[in-house]
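Customer escalation, tier 2.

The customer says the design service returned an amino acid string that "doesn't look like it belongs to this structure." They asked us to rerun it and document both sides in this ticket. The original structure tokens are below, unchanged.
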């Protein structure tokens, strides 16, 4: 059976009324929601291709990016829409889902879409959107309230934050620069009164949560760790279970455990 994970990042993290409406739109295909008021961002983890469309349509109806304030970089109200192939789903199926979604968003919602995957990376879009890089689908200028969407196909990653036990954002930025590698993307941010190293572990089998936590802790006092969304079960299996709580990991926060608890849409 084909199984696609879709991890939609929406530029709203605190308005409970809006978040409730978006959760309702995602419906039974929703596996997890992670919201952060300081980032002003929510991560909706879903399966299938219909729930992302319902969520995107409702988000465009409800959000106005011109009023958005938050520390996380973004280009749109529906900021990032990656399709992730879970075995036995193929990479070709993920690319097809990505392209179909981008055409839907451009044609039916009027939102320009930038593609990432084989063509370019997500950081490339953030750096060059509407400058040297024009959308792959839709208008050549941002939607007046929804901005643009970054629609991609990628392998499983782990979104992971490590909070410093102080507000030294310059230190967090310095640590982020040191940690960046082919397997780690990192930013240093001030989140409330605490500094944070915010990371995407894009090859978690190479560099996982324990490795980056320890790397940060070697450079600064750590307040806490935070898993954003879900992780693959193999990530937990590679780490001594005595560290799971410290690293904010748990068996019920894996992709596999959430999928096992529901019926996969065909």
């Amino acid at each position: 059976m084909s199984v696609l994970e879709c991890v939609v990042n929406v530029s709203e993290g605190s308005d409970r009324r809006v978040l409730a409406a978006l959760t309702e739109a995602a419906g039974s295909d929703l596996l997890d929601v992670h919201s952060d008021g300081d980032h002003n961002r929510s991560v909706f983890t879903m399966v299938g291709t219909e729930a992302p469309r319902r969520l995107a349509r409702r988000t465009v109806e409800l959000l106005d990016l011109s009023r958005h304030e938050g520390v996380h970089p973004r280009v749109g109200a529906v900021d990032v829409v990656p399709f992730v192939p879970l075995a036995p789903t193929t990479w070709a199926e993920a690319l097809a889902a990505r392209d179909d979604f981008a055409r839907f968003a451009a044609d039916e919602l009027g939102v320009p879409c930038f593609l990432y995957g084989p063509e370019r990376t997500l950081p490339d879009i953030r750096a060059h959107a509407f400058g040297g890089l024009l959308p792959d689908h839709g208008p050549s200028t941002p939607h007046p309230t929804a901005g643009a969407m970054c629609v991609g196909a990628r392998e499983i990653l782990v979104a992971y934050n490590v909070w410093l036990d102080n507000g030294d954002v310059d230190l967090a930025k310095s640590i982020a620069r040191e940690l960046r590698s082919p397997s780690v993307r990192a930013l240093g941010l001030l989140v409330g009164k605490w500094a944070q190293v915010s990371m995407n572990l894009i090859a978690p089998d190479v560099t996982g949560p324990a490795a980056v936590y320890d790397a940060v802790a070697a450079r600064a006092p750590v307040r806490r760790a935070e898993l954003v969304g879900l992780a693959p079960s193999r990530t937990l299996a590679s780490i001594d279970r005595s560290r799971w709580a410290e690293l904010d990991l748990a068996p019920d926060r894996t992709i596999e455990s959430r999928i096992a608890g529901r019926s996969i849409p065909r």
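Tier 2 assessment: The sequence is consistent with the input. Residues 235 and 254 are 9 Å apart (CA to CA). The helical segments are 16-26, 50-62, 91-109, 122-128, 169-179, 209-217, 233-237, 255-260. Sent an explanation to the customer and offered a walkthrough call.
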